[in-house]
């Protein structure tokens, strides 16, 4: 048989060569995988593409952020109001303890990388942070019913150095427009540099508020349309020497004023606790933390004195002022037995500092005894230039009956605690 030129035949030719009994065909070179010396390197897993690398980096970064925020939330829950050094560290707005884990939950659910770790950390931070955030969601559903016509109007406001940097007429006009029965005003003072200095503005105050009884103690001013039956500035024992030449600024941080409302005595506590920290100081210096520690020591002594007076007071109580206390802080334990009046407000996040639409921190608070009926709490932003704090207005009704006693709860003239 003739074969085409150049094409060999036989046992070693053709597309399959070297066929043995029981063996399969051996592919010719170029028909299958290479072997022996001619074989190339074994194929490994494909290198991740840019999208996979980005997802891996994002997942790792998100997990690290969730871990850090969860740790911060745990530490704040355990230390705020209990360890003085935390006062110099805890600068985050309380709302962040709710907003941050909520903002991270969606990307954590979408990114598969480290999701089993990230999601539980964020859930932990959210559960703990909800109680640290100061949010009152019930305010959105609260009934804005009518306020009784005879309800007491109580204003509390940190005036921020009185009207030192503002027009006095504008300042007093803003206060008068509330027509309050009681004003609890803090920082009745001026400043010279970073030093507080006392002032005497009583003549202008009497002209602006005719018919009011006026109680001025240290940096506090209390105005009342109702008769004042007791006035007492709380001065704790054991306070360190005042840092400036105005002792009352440092030694008086709570002033109690009892008033008679239709024969019922109501105790008003005008309060301004020492600062948690001084934002004008450099936190990288030892002096910053020495000042934080000094303020914390003073706060503790003032809070103890306040708690002792509350425990010994049988009257219904309204307490207001700049407490320099954040939501969720253990410092709120000093006000046990009193009700946070924000529960009767219509603001879901009743932040008071800095004044304006961007208020992020709640430093100013109002509390009342359970038997004092709070009809409404509202916050107001003062006109620009008056104060860095928002004003709080309460509308309330004291209890119908005074506490039992020989002569009600009126302090007798021989009571050594009663001031003239």
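-> sequence recovered:
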């Amino acid at each position: 048989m003739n074969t085409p030129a150049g094409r060999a035949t036989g046992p070693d030719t053709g597309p399959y060569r070297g066929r043995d009994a029981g063996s399969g065909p051996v592919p010719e070179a170029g028909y299958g995988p290479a072997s022996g010396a001619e074989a190339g390197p074994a194929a490994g897993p494909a290198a991740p593409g840019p999208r996979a690398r980005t997802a891996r980096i994002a997942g790792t970064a998100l997990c690290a952020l969730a871990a850090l925020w969860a740790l911060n939330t745990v530490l704040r829950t355990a230390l705020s109001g209990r360890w003085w050094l935390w006062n110099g560290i805890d600068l985050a707005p309380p709302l962040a303890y709710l907003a941050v884990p909520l903002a991270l939950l969606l990307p954590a659910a979408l990114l598969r990388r480290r999701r089993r770790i990230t999601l539980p950390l964020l859930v932990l931070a959210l559960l703990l942070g909800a109680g640290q955030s100061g949010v009152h969601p019930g305010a959105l559903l609260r009934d804005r019913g009518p306020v009784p016509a005879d309800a007491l109007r109580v204003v509390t406001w940190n005036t921020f150095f009185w009207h030192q940097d503002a027009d006095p007429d504008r300042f007093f006009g803003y206060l008068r427009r509330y027509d309050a029965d009681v004003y609890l005003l803090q920082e009745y003072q001026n400043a010279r540099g970073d030093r507080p200095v006392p002032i005497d503005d009583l003549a202008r105050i009497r002209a602006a508020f005719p018919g009011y009884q006026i109680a001025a103690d240290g940096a506090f001013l209390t105005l009342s349309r109702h008769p004042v039956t007791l006035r007492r500035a709380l001065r704790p024992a054991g306070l360190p020497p005042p840092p400036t030449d105005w002792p009352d600024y440092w030694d008086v941080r709570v002033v109690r004023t009892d008033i008679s409302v239709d024969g019922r005595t109501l105790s008003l506590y005008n309060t301004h606790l020492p600062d948690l920290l001084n934002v004008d100081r450099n936190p990288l210096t030892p002096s910053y933390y020495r000042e934080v520690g000094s303020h914390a020591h003073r706060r503790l002594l003032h809070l103890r004195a306040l708690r002792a007076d509350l425990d010994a007071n049988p009257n219904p109580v309204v307490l207001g002022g700049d407490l320099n206390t954040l939501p969720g802080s253990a410092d709120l334990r000093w006000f046990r037995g009193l009700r946070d009046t924000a529960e009767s407000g219509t603001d879901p996040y009743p932040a008071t500092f800095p004044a304006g639409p961007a208020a992020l921190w709640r430093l100013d608070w109002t509390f009342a005894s359970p038997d004092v009926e709070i009809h409404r709490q509202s916050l107001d932003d003062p006109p620009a230039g008056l104060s860095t704090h928002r004003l709080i207005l309460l509308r309330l009704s004291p209890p119908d009956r005074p506490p039992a006693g020989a002569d009600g709860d009126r302090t007798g003239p021989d009571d050594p605690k009663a001031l003239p």
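The radius of gyration is 36 Å.
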